[in-house]
Amino acid sequence: METVGSQIIEVLSSMISSGVPVSDGTRIARDLGLDSVAIMDFVMELEERFDILIPLDQIADVETIHDLTKAIEAIMKDAA
Amino acid sequence: MSIFDKFADIRNTLAELSANGQNPLEVRFDEINSPVEGMVGGKRVLLFGTSNYLGLTFDADCIEAGVHMLRESGTGTTGSRIANGTYTGHASLESQLANFYGKRTAMVFSTGYQANLGLISALAGREDHLFIDADSHASIYDACRLSSAEVIRFRHNDADDLARRIARLKDKPGCRIIVTEGIYSMLGDTAPLREIAAVKRESGSYLIVDEAHSMGVLGARGRGQCEAAGVEADVDFVVGTFSKSLGAMGGFAVSDLEGFDLLRVAARPYMFTASLPPSIVATVSAALHRIQKDPSLGARVRANGLRLYRGLQKAGFLLGPQPNPVVAVKMPDRECAVTFWKYLLAEGVYLNLALPPATPGSLALLRSSVNAQHTDEQIDCAIAAITRVGVRLGLIKPAAPDPRVNHPEKLALPAE
Question: What ipTM does this complex have?
Answer without folding.
Answer: 0.90
